[in-house]
Amino acid sequence: MTFSLRTFTPREIVSELDRYIVGQNKAKRAVAVALRNRWRRQQVAPELRDEIAPKNIIMIGPTGVGKTEIARRLAKLSQAPFIKVEASKFTEVGYVGRDVESMIRDLVEIAIQMVRAEQVESVRTRAADHAEERLVNMLLGAKGPAPAQPSGPQLFSPFLVTPAPGTPAPSAGASGGKSQLAPEFFETRGKLRSGALDDEMLELDVADASNPLVNIFAGAGMGEMESNLRDMMQNLPGGRGKTKKRKVKVSEARKILENEEAQKLVDMDNVQGEAIERTEQAGIVFLDEIDKVASRQDAKGGPDVSREGVQRDLLPVVEGSTVSTKYGPVKTDHILFIAAGAFHVSKVSDLIPELQGRFPIRVELDSLEKNDFVRILTEPKTALTRQYEALMQTEGIKLRFSEDAIEALAEYATEANRRAENIGARRLHTIMEALLEELSFSAPEMGETEILIDGARVKKTLEPILSNEDLAKYIL
Q: CA-to-CA distance for 450 and 301, rounded, in angstroms?
């Protein structure tokens, strides 16, 4: 089994990131090179390939400057299993809370979902054909092809059930398939394909997942045990296969049956194997708030003891170890770790030396100024101004922002960050909400109209708030 990464050059990666993130070229270049190095490693001879370790990255910068967004867009670009975790949520082994290995187990779950979705999509055409045949048989009142019944004792609930002597075995021709009802079958299938039967009601047996056999409530830090217990209970007699009757339209029944048939065609053993390989070779873990587990050099005892414990637990996972999951062991030697933190109080040097050595690339992200805010409001594909224009368009209002309005918004965001806590680009959300609060409330009664937001309107709305420092702290 081989898994190949999507091949983008570092320049193409940076260009794609530029569509969503303004500035921060150093960080973009660092992650682009790290991603390209994963592809380069796969082209190396096998005897050297395992010796090439990923170049893990620490991104240093205040909140709201694009650290998380860079990692998130990178994962979408590479189509790799990606998970974002808060380092501050982990606790040292022996304390109540989540252990650091849980992030690898969660990463494998994400990879399982990715691979399963891809394989379901690959068999979608065959599944649609099978579902169509079942649906036609149901509409004709005939049962679909039934699986051959085992001749020996059957395990059902906690009892063994043996077929009574003389019970006839089902024959292949008794399924009521196309051979017996050929004219009716093809006629009904033609109506089904034309959509003439879409509004007909049909009774289906669907899986009943609403009432589990046993409810399991696990405490904090017991997520893996809860998952294992739930799987074990489902494998007990009567734990799986429970169904319920449900009346649905034919159009909805087709989707339900297609999903059922697609799941039958997917080999879960292959899914699990490929997901584990993809996790090991291409997985990306984004460790946010890494500065919160750094112990200050002048601190003695207290919570800093637990912080160092989390770092010690992180160390073997980052440097390469084997983590046990319910799908099998997963090696972390080649998983890319991207850590990020503001490091306002602590410094990177406050991390234990062994952990520092596992993050050889350090990138400092720049604080955002007025010009950056102007670019953020205008350049990205998903700029805030475009988002609000699209939202107002749903009410029939054509909203536009003039250039001087953009300049004024950027200036007020910069000033609010200077006076209060610097929260970077997130300040633009509070500024925009304060500016458009009245419009958002009154929009449904305004009807179709065109509204231009200019600099004067921005100043009239935001100046009274910003001039009152106490009020600005609460609103902006």
A: 62
